[in-house]
Amino acid sequence: MAKKHLSRRAFLKTSGAIGALGAAGVIVSSESRVKPALAEEKDGGAPNEKVDGSSLPKGLAFYYDQVRCIGCKNCTKACAEYKQLPEEFVYRRVYKKSPDSPVWELNEKSREPWGDHFAHYLSVSCNHCDNPACAHACPTKAMHKKEDNGLVVVDESRCIGCGYCYLACPYDAPRIDAKAGHSRKCNFCEERQVVGEKPMCVASCPMNALDFGTDAEIMERHPDAKIAESEPLPKFIYTTPHFFMRSADMGDNKSLAGQKGEAK
Amino acid sequence: MFLNMESTAMHHALSEIPLALFTTLFPMAIGAFIAIAIAFWFNRFTDEQTKKIDKLTIIPLILIVVSFLFAMLHLKSPLNAIWIFANLGSSPLSNEILGAAICTVIVGVYWLLALLGKLSYGLRRIFLVLVVLAAIAGPIVLGFAYRVPTIITWASVGPYVYLVGNALLGGVACGIAILHIALGSYEKVVVTKADHADIATEVDRETKTHGLNPSAKIALAVVAALGFALAIGGAFIHQADVNSTLTAFVIGSEHFADVQLFFWLFFPIGLIALILTLIAVLKDKKLGLVAFIIYFIAVLSLRLVFYGTYITVGM
Ligand code: SF4
Ligand code: SF4
Ligand code: SF4
How far apart are the first and last CA of chain A? Predict the structure, then answer.
């Protein structure tokens, strides 16, 4: 695969950019950036995710620029509002690591900006892995990788809500919606992509820190993209994620692993 | 390490309580079949005693069913459980449930045949070997559920070892409680007959003959003690594996401090359960039920530690 041709680890010495952007106070509300919802909507406003995605190319990936990201959580908020998510969880989480903190932090209950101009951030959702730990662990095959376009999605009619996908995913992507009775996670906005729209999170980022496309498209648009496995992300080898990023150099970056959040 | 502001190891443990209850009760219940097998192996019970033991053997079966109900509580859409075996081979959960179901069917078929009087003395002995194997395999297959390559703290043989240990000690506690009820009520019947003074001496002799013989008692005591030894060993193996994970990922041990109390609770509570079980077995005191309940609490605390100490290779 194309992503194997990329060099595996290179930290860029661009952390100063974050401070500069932060100092400029660039915070854009998600409402001003979010495009109108699609025509296809279920009752209650949540988008209809049951679409024919066979026209999409296989191997769609996310690109994330850690140097540009300002931790505004517009991606989180735009996605959550568009997908009508309950307040307990979100699909795209923005983690924070303050310079003086040894740990990465997550506050899934808040969709407000982190507001710390000196911190590093990491925006992660599902990476629609080629070797998806979630689908391997799922007893019912509700969590599955679609044959036509390779997206990893949940078949709600089969899901028992056991939470094994949530436990197995090293990117902490799926969540169990207790009220709905099944697992939920990012579907790469398949229903938007089939009508030519960008994924909502990508479209809502004020810093253009998020992008998406095939491996080839991402390499062309972001020649400095690397396989996303800088700490605290897991090594690429575990699930073969479709996730590229430009990493900020954090200097004293230590090996980190962690415990999942409360919302399930 | 990700520090979720609202999440603690304790929170994680408590959110998996249905699974903790399932994996506590199932091994202890199926382990009772080991105790019953030992009793039949070393004793030649009268038909009446055999019938009583067989009838009461429904108790561990009911406990197994209850344990499965606990597991169902964990599901948000249990009605979709018809799909649970769709991913056999790949999904640790499919494999676990199938394995546990097979072991349950084996002990269930034994109980049904025994109850229907279809097991001759010889056939029963053969079947009991199968039952013991199923009762040991049952807790081991529960460990299949933990074969998730991305969850590092689950990659330990410790849980397999202590699940088997819990089946042995918990099983003997449950089994001796059943045997005491069955054999004790037999004694009562005989004593009623003793109102006839002319057969009183005969009655005394019969009562002695039909209690558990010393070999059975020693075997049960050894199994119970071995069970506790395995449980302690397994608990420490898992603890050591978790600690090495913490070291490898530069996470302070305080990360799991709030569930650590449960780990240390297991040993004194488990020891009390072992002592009560040994007294029940060796001294014919009816303490089996109390020992079972106490050991249930001890094992539950160990299972909470397991679910609380959860770390993936990533986030
Ligand atoms: S990121 Fe997690 S949920 Fe998404 S495909 Fe990979 S393993 Fe599955
Ligand atoms: S919660 Fe649903 S999708 Fe996730 S592993 Fe269980 S059955 Fe599969
Ligand atoms: S692709 Fe869509 S569903 Fe996935 S994180 Fe972005 S907005 Fe949410």
Answer: 33
Kindly report the average pLDDT of chain A as a whole number: 82
The verdict on residue B204 lying in a domain is no
Of A170, A182, A256, the CB nearest to B150: A170
Nearest ligand 1 atom to the CA of A172 is 2
Dihedral angle sign, alpha carbons of residues A29, A33, A36, A38: negative
Read off the CATH number of the domain in which A133 is found: 3.30.70.20
Domain count for chain A: 1
The reply to whether B202 falls in a domain is no
The pLDDT tens digits for B176-229 are 999 999 998 544 444 455 555 555 555 554 444 457 999 999 999 999 999 999
Q: Are B287 and B315 in contact (CB under 8 A)?
A: no
Asked whether residue B236 is domain-assigned, the answer is yes
Residue range(s) defining the domain that contains residue A84: 2-263
Task: Say yes or no for a CB contact (<8 Å) between A139 and B87.
Answer: yes
Q: What is the CATH number of the domain that holds B298?
A: 1.20.1630
Number of compact structural domains in chain B = 1
Question: Distance from B164 to chain A by nearest Cα, in Å?
Answer: 24
* pLDDT tens digits, one per residue of A83-103: 999 999 999 999 999 988 878
3-state secondary structure of A155: coil
pTM for the model stands at 0.85
CA atoms within 13 A on the CB side of B138: 36
Q: What is the ipTM of this complex?
A: 0.88
Q: Which residue range is the domain that position B274 belongs to?
A: 6-184+210-308
Encode pLDDT of B237-275 as tens digits: 999 999 998 888 777 667 788 888 899 999 999 999 999
Q: What is the phi/psi pair of residue B254, to 5°?
A: -65, -15
Mutate to test the pocket of ligand 1, among A60, A89, A134 (most ligand atoms within 8 A of CB): A134
Q: Does the residue B192 lie in any domain?
A: no
